[in-house]
Amino acid sequence: MSASVTGEKTNLRRLLAARRRDRTTAERTGAAEAIALHATALPALVRARRVAAYLSLPSEPGTEPLIDLLAGRGVEVLVPLGRPDRSMDWVVHELGSVAVGALGVPEPTGPPLGAGALATCDVALVPGLAVDHAGNRLGRGAGYYDRALADFPGVVCAVVFDDELLEHVPHEPHDHPVDLVLTPAGVFRPSRDRDL
Ligand SMILES: Nc1nc2c(c(=O)[nH]1)N(C=O)[C@@H](CNc1ccc(C(=O)N[C@@H](CCC(=O)O)C(=O)O)cc1)CN2
Ligand SMILES: Nc1ncnc2c1ncn2[C@@H]1O[C@H](COP(=O)(O)OP(=O)(O)OP(=O)(O)O)[C@@H](O)[C@H]1O
């Protein structure tokens, strides 16, 4: 069963990546702004003192307006550094200190705090290619986030485009479900009970 789920994930990733390539700059810019707007009213983020975010790739819904908004409110924002062993380290996000890392992902250049810094965050904003109505998230297939979130005690919030909130996403036992989904259309609260 697991081998077929892995294959289903690969096929779905391909389809979603192709869809992302077709999005216009206007759609991406609009999505980034709308996501930040919805985040302003999200209680988990309003309460948060420290938030784990990520610096978006051009293909992803942009996180810059959201990070600026949080930082403007005095929230401390951490962003990840991918390590070769597929763990993530965390760095305090500061304007102007970003370089493109080995995976093509924008990465902070400040001092790393260690993998344990994630556990000190109230909310983790996580990238994904899709999320389903039960909160199952499809990532890039490297397992960075599933590994990091395995013992995360805070609120996990995925950020995706509207048409990436799907009825069903193939998932495996190691996949860490998300508590919330932010899309340009608003906030979605997955109901785990629907994954029957
Ligand atoms: N913005 C962002 N930062 C992130 C992640 C992510 O998905 N997005 N990660 C989540 O794990 C970690 C880095 N892991 C990654 C694993 C694979 C690829 C990858 O396959 N990149 C493609 C290009 C993807 C694109 O442009 O859309 C490639 O190199 O071909 C990238 C990052 C930590 N930081
Ligand atoms: N908690 C974990 N401990 C060890 N290995 C893990 C863990 N979670 C996932 N993996 C491994 O990582 C690989 C990729 O997993 P998966 O396809 O679910 O990634 P993904 O959810 O798409 O990626 P990401 O979590 O980075 O967004 C799999 O081989 C899986 O066994």
TrEMBL record:
Substrate binds at residues 55, 60. The keyword Transcription regulation does not apply. The keyword Magnesium applies. It catalyses: (6S)-5-formyl-5,6,7,8-tetrahydrofolate + ATP = (6R)-5,10-methenyltetrahydrofolate + ADP + phosphate. Keywords: ATP-binding, Ligase, Magnesium, Metal-binding, Nucleotide-binding. One of its GO terms (biological process) is tetrahydrofolate interconversion. GO terms for molecular function: 5-formyltetrahydrofolate cyclo-ligase activity; ATP binding; metal ion binding. Its EC number is 6.3.3.2. It is an enzyme of class 6 (ligase). InterPro entries: FTHF_cligase, FTHF_cligase-like_sf, NagB/RpiA_transferase-like. This is 5-formyltetrahydrofolate cyclo-ligase.
